[in-house]
Amino acid sequence: VALAIPLYEQTVYPAGLHKSKKKRVHFLLHEDLKYIERITKEATLIGKRNINNLDDLEKHLMKTNDKKEELIKERRCFYNKIRRCRNEETKKLLQQDVATLSAEIKELSKEVVLYEGIKERSGSMKAKLKQIKDKENSLQQEQQINEKEKGGRDK
Predict the structure, then answer these.
(1) Which of 29, 59, 65, 129, by CA, is between 20 and 30 Å from 148?
(2) Nearby residues of 57 by Cβ (< 8 Å), 6 or more positions away
(3) Closest CA to 118 of 66, 45, 10
(4) pLDDT tens by residue, 52-99
């Protein structure tokens, strides 16, 4: 147990994962932690929305963008109503509605960013996987050629 505590402190505290200590994250770890957090959010979103392929992702992205645009239009209408409204109570209610819509728009915007990140990363991952597969195939062909040459020399 005595050995586990320093190891815990060396890994968890510098990473900023322990909530009780208000210690700043080292600048070398900051980008890595942000990247891990973004990947975690994307994976969580994929699980919540039950996205299995790129088509599902596109559908959810389009749906989310459409809903966001609809809410933005609705918020503009509320802004216009607030500008024309003379009753203070009604104005306050409309401002609360605007605040609610703004919060929803903010969440949808975050979702859109996550969807686009997933889409971008999946494209680059496909390219990298294809590159790896091509490299493995070329290595395999070279090995086969080398084996044939060795077999021809042995005779």
Answers:
(1) 129
(2) 51, 115, 118, 119, 122
(3) 45
(4) 999 999 999 999 999 999 999 999 999 999 999 999 999 999 999 999
Instruction: Give pTM, 2 decimals.
Output: 0.71
Spatial separation of the C-alpha atoms in residues 21 and 36, rounded to whole Å: 21
d(Cα 22, Cα 131) in Å, to the nearest integer?
44
Q: Which of 96, 65, 64, 61 is nearest to 81 (CA)?
A: 96
Whole-number Å distance between alpha carbons of 13 and 33: 13
Tokens standing for residue 100: 């609610």
The enclosing H or E element of 87 equals none
